[in-house]
Design brief:
Helix 1 runs antiparallel to helix 8 and helix 3 packs across helix 9. The chain folds into two domains: 171 residues, D-Maltodextrin-Binding Protein, domain 2 (3-Layer(aba) Sandwich); 103 residues, Periplasmic binding protein-like II (D-Maltodextrin-Binding Protein, domain 2), CATH 3.40.190. It is of the alpha/beta class. The protein starts with a strand and ends with a helix. The strands form four sheets. The protein has a five-stranded mixed beta sheet with strand order 3-2-4-12-5, sandwiched between helices. A three-stranded mixed beta sheet has the order 1-13-6, with no helix packed on it. Strands 10-7-11 form a three-stranded antiparallel beta sheet. Belongs to the NlpA lipoprotein family. It is found in: Membrane.
Length: 286
Protein backbone atom coordinates (compact mmCIF):
# COMPACT_ATOMS: atom_id res chain seq x y z
CA UNK A 1 0.00 0.00 0.00
CA UNK A 2 1.42 3.39 -1.01
CA UNK A 3 -0.02 5.21 2.01
CA UNK A 4 2.62 7.40 3.64
CA UNK A 5 2.43 9.05 7.04
CA UNK A 6 3.50 12.65 7.62
CA UNK A 7 3.84 13.25 11.34
CA UNK A 8 4.53 16.73 12.69
CA UNK A 9 7.48 17.26 14.99
CA UNK A 10 5.13 18.43 17.71
CA UNK A 11 3.17 15.55 19.21
CA UNK A 12 -0.55 15.57 18.59
CA UNK A 13 -2.63 16.08 21.70
CA UNK A 14 -4.05 12.95 23.28
CA UNK A 15 -7.80 12.95 22.90
CA UNK A 16 -9.96 11.61 25.70
CA UNK A 17 -12.22 8.77 24.63
CA UNK A 18 -14.81 9.37 27.33
CA UNK A 19 -17.36 12.07 28.02
CA UNK A 20 -18.21 12.56 24.36
CA UNK A 21 -21.01 15.04 23.76
CA UNK A 22 -22.56 16.69 20.74
CA UNK A 23 -21.30 20.13 19.74
CA UNK A 24 -22.91 23.07 21.43
CA UNK A 25 -23.57 24.70 18.06
CA UNK A 26 -25.82 21.87 16.86
CA UNK A 27 -29.41 21.11 17.75
CA UNK A 28 -30.41 19.16 20.87
CA UNK A 29 -29.68 15.82 19.23
CA UNK A 30 -26.64 13.77 20.20
CA UNK A 31 -25.93 13.15 16.50
CA UNK A 32 -22.90 14.86 15.00
CA UNK A 33 -23.65 16.33 11.59
CA UNK A 34 -20.65 16.36 9.26
CA UNK A 35 -20.73 17.84 5.78
CA UNK A 36 -18.76 16.57 2.80
CA UNK A 37 -18.77 16.52 -1.00
CA UNK A 38 -17.64 12.89 -1.35
CA UNK A 39 -20.12 11.02 0.85
CA UNK A 40 -20.27 8.10 -1.60
CA UNK A 41 -16.67 7.05 -0.92
CA UNK A 42 -15.97 3.90 1.06
CA UNK A 43 -14.02 5.77 3.74
CA UNK A 44 -17.20 7.42 4.99
CA UNK A 45 -19.06 4.18 5.63
CA UNK A 46 -16.02 2.74 7.43
CA UNK A 47 -15.63 5.97 9.44
CA UNK A 48 -19.32 6.01 10.42
CA UNK A 49 -19.14 2.42 11.65
CA UNK A 50 -15.99 3.03 13.69
CA UNK A 51 -17.48 6.17 15.23
CA UNK A 52 -20.59 4.20 16.20
CA UNK A 53 -18.40 1.64 17.98
CA UNK A 54 -17.06 4.56 20.06
CA UNK A 55 -20.57 5.74 20.90
CA UNK A 56 -20.61 8.60 18.37
CA UNK A 57 -23.59 8.77 16.04
CA UNK A 58 -22.67 10.49 12.78
CA UNK A 59 -24.96 11.96 10.17
CA UNK A 60 -22.97 12.46 6.99
CA UNK A 61 -24.59 15.34 5.11
CA UNK A 62 -23.78 15.19 1.37
CA UNK A 63 -23.24 18.29 -0.78
CA UNK A 64 -22.89 18.33 -4.57
CA UNK A 65 -20.93 21.59 -4.62
CA UNK A 66 -18.18 23.09 -2.46
CA UNK A 67 -19.62 26.56 -1.96
CA UNK A 68 -22.47 25.86 0.51
CA UNK A 69 -20.58 23.52 2.86
CA UNK A 70 -18.71 26.14 4.87
CA UNK A 71 -21.74 28.39 5.02
CA UNK A 72 -23.83 25.53 6.43
CA UNK A 73 -21.19 25.06 9.12
CA UNK A 74 -20.98 28.77 9.91
CA UNK A 75 -24.77 28.97 10.27
CA UNK A 76 -24.94 26.01 12.68
CA UNK A 77 -26.53 23.55 10.27
CA UNK A 78 -23.46 21.31 10.63
CA UNK A 79 -21.14 20.55 13.55
CA UNK A 80 -18.05 19.96 11.40
CA UNK A 81 -17.06 19.45 7.78
CA UNK A 82 -14.36 17.59 5.87
CA UNK A 83 -14.03 18.40 2.20
CA UNK A 84 -11.44 21.16 1.78
CA UNK A 85 -7.80 22.05 2.08
CA UNK A 86 -6.45 24.89 4.23
CA UNK A 87 -6.14 27.33 1.34
CA UNK A 88 -9.80 26.93 0.42
CA UNK A 89 -10.83 27.49 4.05
CA UNK A 90 -8.65 30.61 4.28
CA UNK A 91 -10.20 32.07 1.14
CA UNK A 92 -13.69 31.34 2.47
CA UNK A 93 -13.00 33.04 5.80
CA UNK A 94 -11.56 36.14 4.16
CA UNK A 95 -14.33 36.40 1.58
CA UNK A 96 -17.19 35.76 4.01
CA UNK A 97 -15.91 37.44 7.16
CA UNK A 98 -16.31 34.15 9.05
CA UNK A 99 -13.79 32.60 11.42
CA UNK A 100 -13.95 28.85 10.90
CA UNK A 101 -11.01 26.96 12.36
CA UNK A 102 -9.23 23.63 11.90
CA UNK A 103 -9.89 20.73 14.25
CA UNK A 104 -7.38 18.41 12.61
CA UNK A 105 -5.67 17.27 9.42
CA UNK A 106 -6.60 14.31 7.24
CA UNK A 107 -4.57 13.80 4.08
CA UNK A 108 -3.04 15.54 1.09
CA UNK A 109 -3.30 14.58 -2.56
CA UNK A 110 -0.09 15.25 -4.49
CA UNK A 111 -0.53 17.24 -7.71
CA UNK A 112 1.25 15.65 -10.62
CA UNK A 113 2.63 16.29 -14.10
CA UNK A 114 1.64 13.82 -16.82
CA UNK A 115 3.22 13.37 -20.25
CA UNK A 116 1.83 10.64 -22.47
CA UNK A 117 4.22 7.82 -23.38
CA UNK A 118 6.95 9.25 -21.14
CA UNK A 119 8.23 7.88 -17.84
CA UNK A 120 10.22 10.95 -16.75
CA UNK A 121 10.68 14.63 -17.50
CA UNK A 122 13.78 13.92 -19.59
CA UNK A 123 13.51 15.79 -22.88
CA UNK A 124 10.71 18.08 -21.74
CA UNK A 125 12.75 21.29 -22.18
CA UNK A 126 11.05 23.63 -24.62
CA UNK A 127 7.63 21.99 -24.26
CA UNK A 128 4.41 23.87 -23.52
CA UNK A 129 2.87 22.57 -20.27
CA UNK A 130 -0.87 22.93 -19.66
CA UNK A 131 -1.88 23.74 -16.09
CA UNK A 132 -5.31 24.25 -14.46
CA UNK A 133 -6.35 27.90 -14.47
CA UNK A 134 -8.63 27.83 -11.40
CA UNK A 135 -7.49 29.66 -8.23
CA UNK A 136 -7.32 26.46 -6.16
CA UNK A 137 -4.84 24.76 -8.50
CA UNK A 138 -3.00 27.27 -10.67
CA UNK A 139 -0.47 28.46 -8.09
CA UNK A 140 0.17 24.96 -6.86
CA UNK A 141 0.64 23.71 -10.42
CA UNK A 142 3.26 26.36 -11.07
CA UNK A 143 5.05 25.32 -7.88
CA UNK A 144 5.01 21.69 -9.06
CA UNK A 145 7.01 22.86 -12.08
CA UNK A 146 9.28 24.91 -9.80
CA UNK A 147 10.00 21.80 -7.71
CA UNK A 148 10.68 19.85 -10.90
CA UNK A 149 13.28 22.45 -11.91
CA UNK A 150 11.32 23.37 -15.03
CA UNK A 151 10.12 26.84 -14.02
CA UNK A 152 11.93 29.69 -12.29
CA UNK A 153 10.07 32.44 -10.44
CA UNK A 154 11.18 36.08 -10.54
CA UNK A 155 11.06 36.51 -6.76
CA UNK A 156 12.11 33.09 -5.50
CA UNK A 157 9.65 31.07 -3.42
CA UNK A 158 6.02 32.24 -3.69
CA UNK A 159 3.16 30.43 -1.94
CA UNK A 160 0.58 31.08 -4.66
CA UNK A 161 2.34 32.21 -7.83
CA UNK A 162 0.62 33.32 -11.03
CA UNK A 163 1.97 33.15 -14.60
CA UNK A 164 3.10 36.77 -14.15
CA UNK A 165 5.53 35.59 -11.44
CA UNK A 166 7.36 33.27 -13.86
CA UNK A 167 10.74 34.25 -15.25
CA UNK A 168 10.14 32.97 -18.77
CA UNK A 169 13.74 33.49 -19.91
CA UNK A 170 15.10 31.40 -17.02
CA UNK A 171 12.49 28.64 -17.29
CA UNK A 172 12.83 25.43 -19.28
CA UNK A 173 9.15 25.14 -20.29
CA UNK A 174 6.31 27.46 -21.21
CA UNK A 175 3.19 27.42 -19.02
CA UNK A 176 -0.31 27.65 -20.50
CA UNK A 177 -3.25 27.91 -18.06
CA UNK A 178 -6.45 26.23 -19.31
CA UNK A 179 -9.69 24.94 -17.81
CA UNK A 180 -8.90 21.99 -15.53
CA UNK A 181 -11.37 19.81 -17.40
CA UNK A 182 -9.33 20.24 -20.58
CA UNK A 183 -5.98 19.13 -19.13
CA UNK A 184 -6.62 15.41 -19.87
CA UNK A 185 -7.41 16.34 -23.49
CA UNK A 186 -4.04 18.07 -23.80
CA UNK A 187 -2.37 15.00 -22.26
CA UNK A 188 -4.06 12.70 -24.76
CA UNK A 189 -2.82 14.94 -27.56
CA UNK A 190 0.71 14.10 -26.43
CA UNK A 191 1.52 17.34 -24.63
CA UNK A 192 2.58 17.55 -20.95
CA UNK A 193 -0.13 18.64 -18.53
CA UNK A 194 -0.68 18.98 -14.80
CA UNK A 195 -3.92 17.16 -13.99
CA UNK A 196 -5.58 17.14 -10.58
CA UNK A 197 -6.93 13.93 -9.09
CA UNK A 198 -10.60 14.65 -9.75
CA UNK A 199 -10.01 14.45 -13.52
CA UNK A 200 -7.69 11.45 -13.67
CA UNK A 201 -10.26 8.71 -13.21
CA UNK A 202 -12.77 10.35 -15.53
CA UNK A 203 -10.13 10.46 -18.26
CA UNK A 204 -8.90 6.92 -17.68
CA UNK A 205 -5.46 8.11 -16.55
CA UNK A 206 -3.78 6.21 -13.72
CA UNK A 207 -1.74 8.01 -11.02
CA UNK A 208 1.32 5.88 -11.74
CA UNK A 209 1.56 7.50 -15.18
CA UNK A 210 2.81 10.71 -13.52
CA UNK A 211 6.30 11.84 -14.50
CA UNK A 212 6.61 14.17 -11.50
CA UNK A 213 4.55 15.16 -8.46
CA UNK A 214 4.97 17.71 -5.70
CA UNK A 215 6.47 16.81 -2.34
CA UNK A 216 3.72 16.60 0.31
CA UNK A 217 6.32 17.33 3.00
CA UNK A 218 7.28 20.69 1.48
CA UNK A 219 6.24 24.09 2.79
CA UNK A 220 4.75 24.78 -0.63
CA UNK A 221 2.34 21.88 -0.15
CA UNK A 222 1.09 22.99 3.30
CA UNK A 223 -1.86 25.02 1.97
CA UNK A 224 -3.25 21.88 0.34
CA UNK A 225 -3.52 19.72 3.46
CA UNK A 226 -7.14 18.58 3.81
CA UNK A 227 -8.77 19.23 7.17
CA UNK A 228 -11.72 18.88 9.50
CA UNK A 229 -13.16 22.37 10.09
CA UNK A 230 -15.50 23.67 12.79
CA UNK A 231 -16.71 26.94 14.23
CA UNK A 232 -13.97 28.58 16.29
CA UNK A 233 -15.72 27.94 19.61
CA UNK A 234 -15.83 24.18 18.92
CA UNK A 235 -12.23 23.35 18.00
CA UNK A 236 -11.54 21.86 21.45
CA UNK A 237 -14.78 19.85 21.56
CA UNK A 238 -13.88 16.33 22.71
CA UNK A 239 -16.18 14.61 20.24
CA UNK A 240 -14.82 16.45 17.22
CA UNK A 241 -11.25 15.80 18.28
CA UNK A 242 -12.09 12.14 18.79
CA UNK A 243 -13.42 12.04 15.22
CA UNK A 244 -10.06 13.32 13.95
CA UNK A 245 -8.36 10.53 15.87
CA UNK A 246 -10.74 7.93 14.44
CA UNK A 247 -10.22 9.17 10.88
CA UNK A 248 -6.57 8.21 11.27
CA UNK A 249 -7.42 4.65 12.29
CA UNK A 250 -5.94 1.89 10.15
CA UNK A 251 -9.36 0.90 8.84
CA UNK A 252 -10.30 4.37 7.61
CA UNK A 253 -6.84 5.01 6.17
CA UNK A 254 -7.04 1.75 4.20
CA UNK A 255 -10.40 2.86 2.78
CA UNK A 256 -9.02 6.30 1.88
CA UNK A 257 -6.12 4.61 0.13
CA UNK A 258 -8.56 2.46 -1.84
CA UNK A 259 -10.80 5.42 -2.71
CA UNK A 260 -7.84 7.48 -3.92
CA UNK A 261 -6.18 4.60 -5.78
CA UNK A 262 -3.10 4.99 -3.64
CA UNK A 263 -2.60 8.73 -4.20
CA UNK A 264 -3.65 10.05 -0.77
CA UNK A 265 -0.89 10.78 1.73
CA UNK A 266 -1.90 10.77 5.40
CA UNK A 267 -1.06 13.97 7.27
CA UNK A 268 -0.99 14.14 11.06
CA UNK A 269 -0.24 17.68 12.17
CA UNK A 270 -0.72 19.52 15.44
CA UNK A 271 -3.93 21.59 15.53
CA UNK A 272 -2.08 24.76 16.54
CA UNK A 273 0.34 24.40 13.63
CA UNK A 274 -2.53 23.93 11.21
CA UNK A 275 -4.33 27.03 12.45
CA UNK A 276 -1.08 29.00 12.19
CA UNK A 277 -0.90 28.01 8.52
CA UNK A 278 -4.55 29.04 8.16
CA UNK A 279 -3.86 32.46 9.71
CA UNK A 280 -0.88 32.99 7.39
CA UNK A 281 -2.91 32.13 4.31
CA UNK A 282 -5.73 34.42 5.44
CA UNK A 283 -3.28 37.31 5.68
CA UNK A 284 -1.96 36.52 2.19
CA UNK A 285 -5.53 36.40 0.84
CA UNK A 286 -6.51 39.83 2.18
Amino acid sequence: MRFTRIVATAAAATIAATGLVACSGADDSSTIKIGTTDADQKAWSVFTDIAAEEGIELEVVPFSDYSPVNEALAQGELDVNKFQHIKYLAEYNVGSGQDLKIVGSTEIYPLALFWKDHSSIDGIDGEEVAIPNDPSNQGRAINVLVQAGLVTLKEGEVTDPTPADIDAAASKVKVTPIDAAQTPTVFNEGKPAIINNSWLDRAGITPDEAVFEDDPNSTQAEPYINVFASRSEDIDDETLNKLVELWHSAEVMAAVDEDSKGTAVEVSRDKEELNDVLARLEEEAK
